[in-house]
Design goal:
formyl-coa transferase, domain 3; single chain; alpha/beta; 370 residues; 2 domains; Rossmann fold; 16 helices
């Protein structure tokens, strides 16, 4: 089967989440990915929970890749990498700025070996700027850019977000998008380039709604004030009688009025512009009179952007997601067992067969590199 990235060779010099997930997406679109691991292997191979001979998270993020152990600090390892670089299309690295230069594989040096190479660097703060050398993780990046401050939860019980927004939304997705753009540009010019992907940069994109208010009014919304961060009764989480949560996203008037009608909201409170807090309190009181299971058929019939907050287990068994084939692809473990592969936002026609089964790469699987 010919896929969009068939024939594209990718060197993956990354670990943890942003880079491995980016190269996984490239692999799923047909690229051949060689994961370069240090002696002893990627730390994530030992992360818990262990599954079928390796860390489960490592398996999910590295399905279908090949692995090759290289000590880039040794002369032999460096020589082998130089040979590999002569015949590769994309290199993805995730070291702090300057580390690849110290190893002798910064972009300027690599470009001399392969001027057609797309060289993608993923870091927290980018290759330049006074924060470039700062250590950090996802929570630091969303905290540093003002995104977390839009809704940190109550000051006495702040909430850690359930998604790694910076890693995936600021690292993986921009890396994949820009690698594909760079490959297209190379088709036109024949030249490679260096991509500087800073996870923090994209966090301002995620704050688009707050930025619109800030630029237009010269005032940033306070924590929880923005309509999309808890400041509106129309976009809110409401506890039901049994403790289940109702996700209300009835933003548009026709949805909101339908919702207000089915719960029996006092008509004087339907216009939530008058006193949003009073409307929110009244809605909360009404929702709390029934269990989530009792509300579910009511909201389903009303079709007004109201859903029950599901557990992950419930979501995995939802017929809709099963019918969409999100879990049809399989990961084969080192010991031969299988589990569902990580669902990815890549159109099915660009991936392999829906029932394909790809393995976790064993260490140094590729004897010659490829």
């Amino acid at each position: 089967m010919m896929q969009p990235l068939s024939g594209i060779k990718v060197l993956d010099l990354t670990n943890l989440l942003p880079g491995p997930l980016a190269t996984l997406m490239l692999a799923e679109a047909g690229a051949e990915v060689l994961k370069i691991e240090r002696p002893g292997g990627d730390d994530m191979r030992g992360y818990q929970p262990e599954w079928n001979g390796t860390g489960a998270a490592f398996g999910l993020l590295n399905r279908g890749k090949k692995s090759f152990i290289l000590d880039l600090k040794s002369e032999k390892g460096a020589d082998r990498l130089r040979l590999l670089l002569q015949d590769v299309d994309v290199l993805v690295e995730q070291f702090r700025p300057g580390i690849m230069d110290k190893l002798g594989f910064g972009y300027a040096a690599v470009r001399e070996v392969n001027p057609h190479l797309i060289y993608c660097s993923i870091t927290g703060y980018g290759q330049s700027g006074h924060r470039a050398q700062e250590a950090g993780h996802d929570l630091n990046y969303i905290g540093h850019t003002g995104l977390l401050a839009l809704q940190p939860g109550p000051t006495d019980r702040p909430v850690v977000p359930p998604a790694l927004i910076a890693d995936i939304g600021g690292g993986t997705f921009p890396a994949v998008i820009n690698i594909l753009l760079a490959l297209r540009q190379r088709d036109l010019t024949g030249q490679g380039c260096h991509l500087d992907i800073a996870m923090t940069d994209a966090m301002f994109t995620f704050a688009w709604h707050a930025l619109a208010r800030r630029f237009a009014t010269e005032r940033c919304p306070a924590p929880g004030e923005s309509e999309l961060c808890g400041g509106s009764p129309r976009y809110q989480l409401y506890p039901a009688k049994d403790g289940g949560l109702i996700a209300c996203a009835a933003l548009e008037d026709h949805f909101w009025r339908r919702f207000a009608s089915v719960i029996g909201l006092d008509p004087t409170l339907t216009d939530d512009r008058r006193d949003p807090a009073a409307t929110m309190a009244a809605v909360a009181a009404l929702i709390a009179t029934r269990s989530a299971a009792e509300w579910e058929p009511v909201f389903a019939k009303a079709d007004c952007c109201l859903t029950i907050v599901r557990s992950l287990d419930d979501a995995l068994s939802d017929p809709h997601f099963i019918q969409r084939g999100l879990f049809s692809r399989r990961l084969r473990g080192l010991d031969g067992g299988t589990m569902p592969a990580l669902p990815l936002p890549i159109a099915p026609q660009f991936r392999g067969p829906a029932d394909d089964e790809k393995p976790v790469p064993p260490l140094s699987q590729a004897e010659t590199g490829w």
